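Backbone shape codes:
***
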Amino acid sequence: MAAQSVEDAIITLVGSGQARTRADIVKRTGLAASTISAAVSRLVDSGAINETEESVSTGGRRARMLAPADAGGVRALIELGAHRALLALTDPDTGITEPTSTPINVADGPRRVLTALRDAITRQEEAHGRTATRIAVAVPGPVDAPRSRVIRPARMPGWDGVDFAGLIRQETGMAAAIENDARAGAMGELVYRRREGAGADDLNPLIYVKAGSAIGGAFLIDGSPVEGADGLAG
């Protein structure tokens, strides 16, 4: 994998919360620890991500935790469907806005969909007086999240192999992450249930089913999604 592709994969994993340490990235990508260490160091030096010591030690050497450089900024959260996209803005200070629906057609291809999303984000920014610095997109098809690529989606012509997060960064200049909609939903459900007081044993393992115009699912073990071949659920 080219150096830039490795760095893009790291930014996606850290930005989506799927990786919080260098060891997490090695596990998710299958790349050599030396390759990941060098790429993380470059990103830290450039200011693209932050790396700090964990505030609470669990014994032994403290882990060094990774986070997006602008983790406290405004994020645009988007869920793509076949014919509409749900969009909301969120930040730690003022919370999440009411989601709005924007007509799209995923069959139009990634560039035309991105144009519609950019317009929708602009409308939300103007309506709420916020400026997004990051974008996270849930996609209705298999996703190789570490490489930001949509993989052989059944109902998304023109999307196969597309690095949609990279396209977003190229067109908007904003950091971006993409994930399969069912896996994203499963992670969201996990966070919600934990905040509602559910214990670890109640949530492990966790099976999540998403039903809409199509059906998808995700499987979490120890809080992490299990992935099968080509971005499918394990």
